[in-house]
Design a protein that fits this description.
By secondary structure, this protein is an alpha+beta fold. The chain has three helices and three strands. The protein is elongated and about 65 Å long. GO terms for molecular function: rRNA binding; structural constituent of ribosome.
Length: 128
């Protein structure tokens, strides 16, 4: 095993998962990421399960990966996790061209995105 190459850049009660080069525009992906920000993990998974957006399946896989990282790598309790952050970044853009009338050309942009999900363990409220 050996020594860690560098210290963790997240606190001990957080875990993250990153999905890179998703074939969707950042604007569309952000609509789905916005839907799960700040929610409990179980509610976020349910929302993604029944979302009608095509990209919700990939966001769900990334969220499940973050949950698995929290449980297996950092010994966090799955029932107390919330989606602390879900942010979207731009990636490459493939440029394609389509012929138009009168010898012109129409540009087609095919954007890609990155998705980062950070889950945080919050203490359950003390029940009296």
């Amino acid at each position: 095993m050996g020594k860690r190459s560098r210290d963790r850049d997240l606190p001990n009660n957080e875990a993250k998962a990153v999905t890179r080069n998703i074939r969707v525009s950042p604007q569309k992906l952000n609509l789905v990421a916005q839907m799960i920000r700040g929610k409990k993990v179980a509610g976020a998974l349910a929302d993604l399960e029944f979302s009608r957006k095509r990209i919700a399946k990939d966001v769900r896989k990334c969220l499940e990966s973050a949950i698995a990282n929290a449980e297996n790598n950092h010994d966090l309790d799955v029932d107390d996790l919330i989606v602390a952050e879900a942010h979207v970044g731009k990636s490459l853009v493939m440029k394609r061209f389509s012929p138009r009338g009168r010898g012109r050309v129409g540009q087609i942009l095919k954007p890609f995105s990155h998705l980062t999900i950070i889950v945080r363990q919050v203490e359950a409220a003390a029940e009296a």
